[in-house]
């Protein structure tokens, strides 16, 4: 399985937000307590300087960390966990591409119908809405941390049209990209 291409700061934002969308893609290890957690763990957040991120469960345990007893990152809750994690990793790594369900299903080796149904059962979302959330998260990160124009960000994160970008952004963030940028700076 390939690892998700996320920067340290992007992963940090995900753990601060307790974002379940990224569970299984990386683990947060705290140097001072020697404990690792899922991104969605509700435990008290460590200082940023005490955090390391790992993309693999074996890797984090080999480094000497033990699993959090609250979020239990070492326990897989579903027999389909690996398939769903592969899909999410594919979406995170390829969000800029024009992706269709058949592209995703071909990548993981199952039918489009089965993938759509299973993914929705496991995450309560379709791959398309999940991809849209990833794109909006990336756009929000770029709005807060770069001077790119809204149009440049729209195409940079994989939206095919500005109207879809603005609609999705407003729906997920409850504000326009311009309002978000003004508020975050």
Task: Outline the structure in words.
Pfam families: Ada_Zn_binding, HTH_18. Residues 85-183 form the HTH araC/xylS-type domain. There is one protein chain. With 185 residues, the protein is an alpha+beta fold. The chain has two domains: 8-67, DNA Methylphosphotriester Repair Domain; 76-185, Homeodomain-like (Arc Repressor Mutant, subunit A). Helices cover 51% and strands 7% of the residues. The chain has nine helices and four strands, in the order αβββαβααααααα. It has helices at 8-16, 57-62, 81-93, 101-108, 112-123, 127-145, 150-156, 162-173, 177-184; strands spanning 27-30, 35-37, 51-54, 66-67. Strands 3-1-2-4 form a four-stranded mixed β-sheet. The protein is globular, with a radius of gyration of 17 Å. 29% of the residues are buried. The mean pLDDT is 90.
- Rg over C-alpha atoms, rounded to the nearest angstrom: 17 Å
> Going across the major beta sheet, what is the strand order?
3-1-2-4
Q: Outline the biggest β-sheet.
A: 4 strands, mixed
Q: Low-confidence parts, pLDDT < 50 over ≥5 residues?
A: none
Based on the model shown, name its key terms.
185 residues; alpha+beta; DNA Methylphosphotriester Repair Domain; Arc Repressor Mutant, subunit A; 2 domains; 4-stranded mixed β-sheet; 9 helices; 51% helix; Ada-like_dom_sf
